[in-house]
Amino acid sequence: MKSITIKGSERESVGKVATKALRNAGAVPCVLYGGDQPVHFSAEEKAFKNLVYTPNAHTVVIDLGNGKSFNAILQDIQVHPVSDKILHIDFFQLFDNKEVTVEVPVKITGNSKGVMAGGDLRITNRKLKVKALPANLPDYVVADITPLEMGNKLYITKVPSENFKIMHPDNTVICQVKMSRAAMKAAQEAAKAAKAPAKGKKK
Domains, the chain, ranges and CATH? Predict the structure, then answer.
């Protein structure tokens, strides 16, 4: 999985007053969990642009200077309900020998026979939770829709998951091909035409 670096600084005070001052200065208060003890730090809001405002999944290198750096993943984010301003972010520390669960996007590939026949591709799950060692975390899960005929569904059991485990029930549907309104109408008209008696045919 691709990684991005966020440069920040440790917070000496974590009270409400100090937190408000950080936000007023354009910084985001953060906490890193998962280690021996929580690490409180802050970073400029713009530093999180490539982490938060993207459909892609990333691991994070938190660089606090003076040789202090941590590998982590974003665990939770609080956003202002009106302004969408980032209020707080929680990170979880990664260790090479410990598996972690993250959410990654689904990448659709191939050309479905059902879609080419006029069906509509309905994507049910655009992201999936996977579990793996940090070194084996995928950038995305590949879903090949080529075999899907009209009315078929693609289940998670049909997607490759080498070196990682998909944390969803086997009956989880990633996408399906449904008959479009136009195709359904054409099928109905064809059925009616087949049932109608031929013109000029004697009873």
Answer: 3-94 (2.40.240.10), 101-193 (2.170.120.20)
